[in-house]
Write a structure and sequence with these properties.
Blueprint lengths: L14 H4 L17 E2 L11 H11 L13 H13 L8 E4 L2 H12 L5 E6 L4 H8 L4 E5 L1 E3 L6 E3 L2 H7 L4 E7 L11 H13 L3 E5 L21 H4 L2 E5 L13 E5 L2 H8 L10 H13 L1 H23 L5 E3 L6 E5 L1 H7 L3 H7 L2 E2 L1 E2 L8 E5 L4 H16 L1
Helix pairs in contact: 2-10, 3-10, 4-5, 6-7, 11-14, 13-14
Length: 393
């Protein structure tokens, strides 16, 4: 991981940094950006050296036509799913995609009719509800409870809450595990409760599991909901990618695991609308699968070391609290008490103090903010100092 922040290492086309042009202005006294953008969930870390080397080899042959997936890619993916999640997947169940987000939209389109309802927990990653809105499907948000049965509070969609909102029109549950933005890692019994309702109500599940490799609590293990049993596997589309794990989200490669041949065929019917992954994406993902594990472990060590820093900063900020994440590199911060006390937007106050985060409204939770802490330690410490300063304003 990078030890120090260096603006020269920020890509000129970075979506996260480029949105805030003033963030490239450096404060002479600190050597840090005047505005720190910790919003979009990519990282300020160089990718693993094996991936860099794979890209160099690929560029060395300067012909970039249409590419096919490496012959061993599906096998390596299935081996990884078995090793990390004890999930036995047949390579035939895989469908390569240009990203998890296109998979969410494609699933919404092909698994629902115009009068069929899309369900999703809230707060949630915004593309889950935007997918339903794009195709004008009836939609129902399911408020997640703050569960404390495991100790610290965590966002949880329960089987009872799912059952309570189902109607005869309910067809598709868009789900997120680990949860974004709250960082919940679902336990087996919690997934089994959701799966039972899905089977009872004849729901298709599309599960966004892009953060599966980023489990921060070392006592926990990610469980794909489709791995529970054959019945739930037959009605589940699981979307996964190495993009978040290895900071190659801009490469554009994900995969869907779809055991049910009818569901798989329906998704494949959209291949003409979904661009194929590029050769760059295939080679980067192949290198990550073959040689990326030491880098991932180093990343997890660094992200875990940041949690006490964030916890301390929140504790020193009157009116703020947060959900201590079990997974992801995202801090979900509750500023509702602060806003009620000060009668103004905490997001605007943060911006005035040189910090740009994701607004809770984006996830269906006004008064909350999301902080992406996958950055260098000096930059994170400065960002947290600005957070504390904003809360004291």
């Amino acid at each position: 991981m990078n030890a120090l922040f260096n603006l020269e290492n920020v890509p000129s086309d970075s979506f996260r940094w480029g949105k805030f042009l003033e963030s490239k202005q450096i404060d002479a006294s600190t050597g840090l950006p005047k505005l720190i953008p910790l919003w979009v969930a990519d990282m300020d870390f160089d990718v693993a050296e094996p991936i860099q080397m794979a890209m160099s080899r690929y560029i060395a042959s300067p012909r970039f036509g249409y590419a096919t997936a490496p012959a061993n890619l599906a096998h390596l993916i299935c081996e990884r799913l078995s090793r990390l999640y004890d999930w036995q997947v047949d390579p035939e169940w895989l469908m390569m995609l240009p990203g998890v987000v296109p998979g969410l939209y494609a699933s919404t389109l092909v698994y629902t009719q115009p009068d069929q309802q899309v369900l999703f927990p809230e707060p949630i990653y915004h593309h889950l509800h935007l997918a339903a809105a794009m195709f004008e499907r009836p939609q129902q948000a399911i408020p997640q409870r703050h569960d404390t049965s495991q100790g610290r509070a965590r966002l949880l969609l329960s089987g009872d809450d799912l059952r309570d909102v189902c109607t005869s029109q309910s067809r598709l549950l868009l789900f997120c595990n680990p949860q974004n933005p709250g960082g919940t890692v679902y336990r087996r019994h919690e997934l089994e409760a959701l799966a039972a309702v899905a089977c009872e109500k004849d729901l298709v599940i599309c599960s966004d599991e892009i953060h599966a490799d980023l489990i921060l609590d070392p006592t926990l293990r990610h469980i794909p909901i489709a791995s529970l049993n054959n019945e739930i596997a037959e009605r589940t589309v699981t979307l996964m990618s190495l993009g978040k794990t290895f900071n190659i989200a801009g490469m554009g490669l994900a995969w869907a695991v779809v055991k049910n041949p009818e569901l798989r065929a329906a998704l494949k019917n959209l291949q003409g609308l979904l661009p194929s992954p590029t050769g760059f994406a295939y080679q980067a993902s192949l290198a990550a699968l073959e040689q990326g594990e030491p880098w991932r472990q180093q990343l997890l060590t660094q992200l875990r070391s940041y949690l006490p820093l964030i916890d301390d900063a929140i504790a020193r900020s009157q009116g703020l609290s947060w959900l201590y994440p079990e997974a992801t590199h995202l801090a979900w911060i509750d500023a509702r008490d602060w806003e009620q006390q000060h009668r103004r937007s905490f997001m605007s106050t943060l911006h005035a103090h040189g910090l740009a985060l994701s607004p809770g409204e984006q996830f269906g939770a006004p008064g909350w903010v999301r902080l992406n802490f996958a950055t260098t330690q000096p930059l994170l410490q400065e960002a947290l100092a600005r957070l504390v300063s904003a809360a004291a304003d």
